[in-house]
Amino acid sequence: MSAPQQQQQPSTGRITYRQDLTPDLAIIRISPSDGSPVPDFKPGQFLTLGLKLDGEGDKITNRAYSIASPPEQKQYFELYVKWATEPVPGKFTTALFRMKEGDQLYWRKPAGAFTIEEKRPDGTPDDRALVLVASGTGLAPFISYVLHLKAAGSKRKIALLHGARNAKELGYRDLLEKIAKDGDIVYLPTVSRPGEPASQGWTGHTGRVESLLVPNGGKSELERALGHKVAPENSMVYICGYQGTIDSVVSILQPLGFVSNRNKRRDGSFDIKIETYG
Ligand SMILES: Cc1cc2nc3c(=O)[nH]c(=O)nc-3n(C[C@H](O)[C@H](O)[C@H](O)COP(=O)(O)OP(=O)(O)OC[C@H]3O[C@@H](n4cnc5c(N)ncnc54)[C@H](O)[C@@H]3O)c2cc1C
Q: What is the CATH code of the structural domain delimited by 129-276?
């Protein structure tokens, strides 16, 4: 999906780090070329990157990427990017995946409303558990949430559910396992293609991420991990990734009384916040 139109002049940035998790999945860091610190932003916002593509002259092509680093990280924006290859190579990511550390691109200041709801519409603090549900690179904003809430010393309970095709595509797994081990979050990764060579040795959950929310033997995997029933009174759910994941998660939660931000209650309250990548 194209990034929303923004009018200000783009800044230039440099790729300062690139880690390829697989041939089509990478963690990329971008720092402002002039050495200035990364501007303030809120966890969950996206960065608009721009590139002049071959054969398109001076035209800048823009795409949005959720920022995975927390706002406390002032040296770089970290992004978690999938090379779109099917059914045809994506315009922007094909060019981006050819780039290396040191290469320059354009960026525009962070924007977007997929941020943590700190308060309810009546102004009281929202201290419900944060249930973060991601498919693929939809994990990126939640890395920013988790690192920010940890840095801020937040006491909010967090459950992070991540679905990927195979184990190699479970980006940030080591980091999240460590944070979970420290007791700061509940981390539930799952792979939908356990038979692939890239899943070799995987002994964890299998199936799509939404399956972790479906009761099985009276309770869902999420409820088992949290130790309580999941209800709008105690959980605020954030979903990021493919439209299919979003539709499935919403259809599982709606019968439990959950209401999304796209269909708020009369008093403005909601219990599911959504970000779609296209
Ligand atoms: C708010 C927001 C945040 C995002 N965050 C991330 C993120 O963190 N990480 C991430 O990886 N992505 C993210 N995205 C998606 C990203 O912005 C791009 O849409 C994505 O990288 C693909 O861009 P592209 O130019 O490579 O593909 P495009 O060229 O735009 O193509 C998009 C898709 O359409 C297909 N396609 C193109 N042309 C045709 C055609 N003629 N016929 C049939 N199919 C076609 C391509 O194969 C591809 O699958 C985000 C999007 C939004 C809106």
A: 3.40.50.80
pLDDT tens readout for residues 48-107: 999 999 999 999 999 999 999 999 999 999 999 999 999 999 999 999 999 999 999 999
Q: Is 14 within 8 Å of 104 (Cβ atoms)?
A: yes
Residue position matching structure tokens 């995997």: 221
pTM for the whole structure: 0.96
Structure tokens at 178: 């460590």
Say yes or no: CB of residue 58 within 6 Å of ligand 1.
Answer: no
Alpha-helical segments (H) within the chain: 91-96, 140-151, 173-181, 221-226, 243-253
Return d(Cα 132, Cα 185) in angstroms, integer.
Answer: 11
User: Residue ranges per domain, the chain?
Assistant: 11-111, 129-276
Q: Give residue 1 CA to ligand 1 midpoint distance, Å.
A: 5
Probe target for ligand 1 pocket from 66, 115, 276, with the most ligand atoms within 8 Å of CB: 66
Indicate the angle between helix axes 173-181 and 140-151, nearest 10 degrees: 30
Alpha carbon nearest to ligand 1 atom 6, residue = 65
